[in-house]
Amino acid sequence: MMEFEQILRSRGYRLTNQRRVIVRELEGERHLSAEEIYDRVKEEHPELGLSTVYRTLDLLHELGIVRKEDFGEGYSRYELATERMHHHARCRRCGKVIEFNEELMEYLTLQVERETGFVTDSYEITLHGLCRECAAASS
């Protein structure tokens, strides 16, 4: 929380209760949607509206505190950027998201940079297909 507060203050923002509540919610979970965050906190924090959750997540993403992921569901999912860099595999049938860290992906990025001169700021790799359970059920 201290690192988060320092980032906000260094950019001229205050650590409001709403921002604190949203970051705390993301500390324990990954890949939450704005609606899921709102549903989890609305009872204890009725002053926190869904539009505030969206605005706060947009700001936190802009400041590099939160990563915004798109798994092709029609909405974004969020996780703290302090989590280790990882990639995702998403089951198109059940929606399960599997995290993986593969050094080959990092090598591939470096290879593309060498061959094309492209300079990568960041990258995200999401594989789409069937998880083990759904693949077994369909055979």
TrEMBL record:
Gene3D superfamilies: 3.30.1490.190, Winged helix-like DNA-binding domain superfamily/Winged helix DNA-binding domain. Fe cation binds at E106. GO terms for molecular function: DNA-binding transcription factor activity; transcription cis-regulatory region binding; zinc ion binding. The keyword Metal-binding applies. Its cofactor is Zn(2+); Mn(2+); Fe(2+). Pfam families: FUR (PF01475). SUPFAM superfamilies: Winged helix' DNA-binding domain. Zn(2+) binds at C91, C94, C131, C134. Keywords: DNA-binding, Iron, Metal-binding, Repressor, Transcription, Transcription regulation, Zinc. Belongs to the Fur family. This is Transcriptional repressor. The lineage of its organism: Bacteria, Bacillati, Actinomycetota, Rubrobacteria, Rubrobacterales. The gene is fur_2.
